[in-house]
Amino acid sequence: MVATDNLTRLLDDLVNRVDGADLAMVLSPDGLPLAASGQLDDELADQVASVTAGLHALAVATGRQTETGSVRQVIVQMRRAYLFIATTRGGAVLTVRFDGDVEVGDVAYEVALFAGQAHHHLPVYLEPASAVQQTTNE
Questions:
Q1: ∠ at Cα 47 (46, 53), nearest 5°?
Q2: Residue 13 vs residue 90, higher pLDDT
Q3: Order of strands, edge to edge, in the sheet holding 93-99?
Q4: d(Cα 60, Cα 39) in Å, to the nearest integer?
Q5: Surface-to-core class of residue 31, CB atoms within 10 Å of its CB (0-12 exposed, 13-18 middle, 19+ buried)
Q6: What is the DSSP string of 73-87?
Q7: Residues 82/107, Cβ–Cβ less than 8 Å
Q8: How many helices and strands in the chain, by DSSP H and E?
Q9: What's the CA gap between 83 and 5, in Å, rounded?
Q10: Cβ contact 105:23 at 8 Å
Q11: In 10 A of CB 6, how many CB atoms?
Q12: d(Cα 75, Cα 83) in Å, to the nearest integer?
């Protein structure tokens, strides 16, 4: 993982501050784990990264196929948990898991807020030229 202490601390703060959050992770757009909250051991981090990268890729492909724009957030509702995936301004991907008893609107706000501020602590990822051209045509 390419973690910085500051980014790891911010993810830990997110998990500790937001009710129901139990893990958080940031990936590069191609699925490389950049940082994770302390609740994730290496094995679980790899699993979360794989699932997140796959779900995000499906959402991106859907946006392209349906010509509806770039992905802002993916929400997966399971029986006992929610998985929120959000793209940061710089192109990195944030994922946060919450227990199933949370207020979804409050959680979506917190994830969007964090994703909007995380770019200060992350590298910027440039989109391929074809994606930039497609975005300008929308």
A1: 85
A2: 13
A3: 33-36, 21-27, 93-99, 81-87, 73-77
A4: 28
A5: middle
A6: EEEEE-SSEEEEEEE
A7: yes
A8: 4, 5
A9: 24
A10: no
A11: 11
A12: 6
Amino acid symbol at 109: Y
Q: Is 112 exposed, middle or buried (0-12, 13-18, 19+ CB in 10 A)?
A: middle
pTM of structure: 0.81
Residues in the chain: 138
Amino acid at 103: E
pLDDT tens-place string over residues 49-104: 999 999 999 999 999 999 998 888 999 999 999 999 998 888 889 999 999 889 98
Beta bridge partners of 77: 82
Between CA 137 and CA 67 the distance in angstroms is: 10
Maximum CA extent, the chain: 42
- Do the beta carbons of residue 49 and residue 27 sit within 8 Å? yes
